[in-house]
Amino acid sequence: MDTYVTPGMFEATKLIVGAAMTAGKLAMTDKYDIAITFGGFHHAGVANGEGFCVFNDVAITAKMLIEEYKIKRILIIDTDAHQGNGTMDIFYNEPRVLFISIHQDPRTLYPGRGFVYEIGSGAGKGYTVNIPMPMFAGNEQYEYALKEIFVPLAGEFQPEMIIRNGGSDPHYTDQLTQLGLDLDGLNMVGKIVRKTVDETSKKLIDMTVSGYGDLTSYGWLAIIAGVSGLSIDFEDLLSKEGQIEPQAKVYDEDSLQLKTQEMIETLNKDLKTYWGCFR
Questions:
Q1: What is the torsional sign of CA 73, 70, 25, 46?
Q2: Residues 41, 163 contacting (CB under 8 angstroms)
Q3: At what angle do helices 216-228 and 183-199 cross, to 10 degrees?
Q4: Number of domains within the chain
Q5: How far is it, in rounded angstroms, from Cα 48 to Cα 40?
Q6: Is 3 a domain residue?
Q7: Nearest-CA neighbor of 209 among 166, 245, 173?
Q8: CA distances to 17, 85, 105, 199, 207 from 222, in Å
Q9: Would you say residue 2 lies in a domain?
């Protein structure tokens, strides 16, 4: 009921999927190491759309790479504030895809999925990793979580391709979510992903969409700049364009960090059976 299919949407969403697949094909060539496209519709499942998503371009692109290019190890890092339930379900039994989602605590936000205990099943057990962040988690907490979980997992998994998806909705001005990243934080997320790509797969497909607020497009710029290795003074940029990034609310950083650390410790215990980097 939240995903209306209006006239023209079927063709439009097919074009988005086609763009993602084209990005994947370009990234597989010797000419390009990184391909950026508008997308990341991660809530759609195999036979259903939901969460404003009609087709799951992330999963379709990953499947295309597995089937056409015989890739054996793909890492999907989903940095959207909402957990990528569609992508997770599609690859829940698939050991060729390591799916990592860092998102707002699912007890407080749609789709209500992505708890630490959801780690895959069958041959794919241990290949689904959910990092549920406490409400209002900001730059420091995100950097800690990514470096504690995403970076070592990527190092051990050694993917042949990394796909990142997610837009600006972890920004603290977003109107649908309750997280605390600023533009520098979104940029930092992109930089960590790019550094990990450089140290592992050497190949990246980046899909940037989502965001519900006045600074959404600036958030997209921050992420794309991060994965592209570009340096931007966001404070200077906003002031020149007549935009002011509202002052972030003040939360107890120590409490947020403690909650994040406790979550990471629980996740480590659940994953150490499957991954040597957590033993």
A1: negative
A2: no
A3: 30
A4: 1
A5: 16
A6: no
A7: 166
A8: 23, 25, 23, 22, 13
A9: no
CA distance 221 to 118: 32
**Which CATH number is 115's domain given?**
3.40.800.20
For every one of its 279 residues, what pLDDT tens digit does the chain have, with 9 covering 90 and above?
788 888 999 999 999 999 999 999 999 999 999 999 999 999 999 999 999 999 999 999 999 999 999 999 999 999 999 999 999 999 999 999 999 999 999 999 999 999 999 999 999 999 999 999 999 999 999 999 999 999 999 999 999 999 999 999 999 999 999 999 999 999 999 999 999 999 999 999 999 999 998 899 999 999 999 999 988 898 888 888 888 776 656 678 899 999 999 999 999 999 999 999 998
58 inside domain = yes
Q: Is residue 1 part of a domain?
A: no
43 is catalytic: yes
Q: Against a cut of 0.85, is the pTM above it?
A: yes
Chain centre distance of CA 33: 19
Q: Is the peptide bond before 111 cis (omega within 30 degrees of 0)?
A: yes
CA distance 240 to 233: 11
Provide the residue range defining the domain that includes 223. 9-278
* Helices 9-27 and 57-69, packing angle to 10 deg: 40
| Catalytic residue (choose from 43, 82, 103, 171) | 43
